[in-house]
């Protein structure tokens, strides 16, 4: 019977052991996956934003070029050699200023009439690009964005196009090409694979050369015919990725396993399967998607360590349990032995008492008047108890500690020391805040919403504050106590404010007095934001051209001259104006005038 009970207990312990290990593995895997997914999402946001920023920056270039009168004249008179020669020189200068790869103008029949490379052996002049989708889209009246390999140079790049209109008719197309290396070079240092796919699922940007010009899935015949007709990837085979398996959800790839070839220490090459978690976001309306492939190896490693730790803890607990059980058995045997000894002594005592009683009765019969009796009693009590609870707030430390790690990686030790000092202060606070409980909670496009200007100003100052401290620039802010609202986009408005504050810092580098004044006032219908610096001011000849594209007073290499032009367009889109003037007390004054809106 005891043997059967021991066997049943062993089975139950084994099942409990396996259940605890399974639950620990599941919890550990879920936590590790959440960490990997969070890192992948941060990387996805970073790379997606950088690519979107590049596309938005250069999308405006063909639009600006299409508005030039000389382009229209050359398209209306394609046989005028002088006009075409002048336009070739203009496109060459434009191409150099914009740091583009190629810039050219295509007539409505698809023939290139002028190009920045007109004087080179690979000139585009006279070539017909009517088969390219970017030309077809622009000729239809829209703006074009396209990626392809150059049919002449075989160099990959982004093609930005925009129609040239004359009296309501499209008479040609302006095209600006940007080299793909602008993006891939900035992604080359990351160990996490990053790929960008087009609408057909072809990988055309990546930091892994073995994945370039691969497809997420086998191409259909129609898709391959469209690509070949546009000569988008020239003679690339466009084979599918070497997938061992993949999981799709709602039309998006969620996880994959790639067969990868690695070199062994002895020089041989072996094929291994590597699992990745995939995070995806769409870049633009053209159907481009950015995919970040986060390796799942850290998840498996964390699960192994968790199982090792939990298994060791369970083994120790089992050993302690067996030791306690064995000790209990020994104690029980000892108590049984003591009980037997006490029983023997009790019997001996009883026998002795009987004999004593008999002898006493004999003595009583001999001595009737020698009898006496006595008795004894005692009582005691002890009780005591104490309960105490202690809770500590922890939420704030995480943010400062994470920030300190980033600052240390960037060797910004002073700011990291400040963060760590704040952590110490929070730790001191935690030691005295007993009895309290604190909980913690948790995420542009062109969306228009109600924007509170004061909050946008605060966010912009937070972004520029490290620069202010570095350059020792004093910033004074004056704003009304009540909130001021408008209809717009908060991120875009903060972009304008950061640009104006950054420009003010630039002009104050050599100034004796380094001070910026930021003011916000409202009169009920309009709101005005002023940014004034104590720098040398703006030269009269530069004041008229300040908001022109590519006009800059900074040294070569410090900007394209598009910041104020873009800011002017953002403010104009909100129904406002952006002006630059001389301040009476010296320096430059930029004023943003915007219509107010009722609070939401």
Automatic annotation (TrEMBL):
The chain crosses the membrane at residues 305-324. Residues 385-598 form the Histidine kinase domain. GO terms for molecular function: ATP binding; phosphorelay sensor kinase activity. InterPro entries: dCache_1, HATPase_C_sf, HATPase_dom, His_kinase_dom, HisK_dim/P_dom, HisK_dim/P_sf, Sensor-like_sf, Sig_transdc_His_kin-like_C. It catalyses: ATP + protein L-histidine = ADP + protein N-phospho-L-histidine. Residues 349-376 form a coiled coil. It is found in: Cell inner membrane. Its EC number is 2.7.13.3. Keywords: ATP-binding, Cell inner membrane, Cell membrane, Coiled coil, Kinase, Membrane, Nucleotide-binding, Phosphoprotein, Transferase, Transmembrane, Transmembrane helix, Two-component regulatory system. It comes from the Bacteria. Pfam families: dCache_1, HATPase_c, HisKA. GO terms for cellular component: plasma membrane. It is a multi-pass membrane protein. CDD domains: HisKA, PDC1_DGC_like. Signal peptide: none annotated. Gene3D superfamilies: 1.10.287.130, Histidine kinase-like ATPase, C-terminal domain, PAS domain. This is C4-dicarboxylate transport sensor protein DctB. It comes from Plasticicumulans lactativorans. The lineage of its organism: Bacteria, Pseudomonadati, Pseudomonadota, Gammaproteobacteria, Candidatus Competibacteraceae.
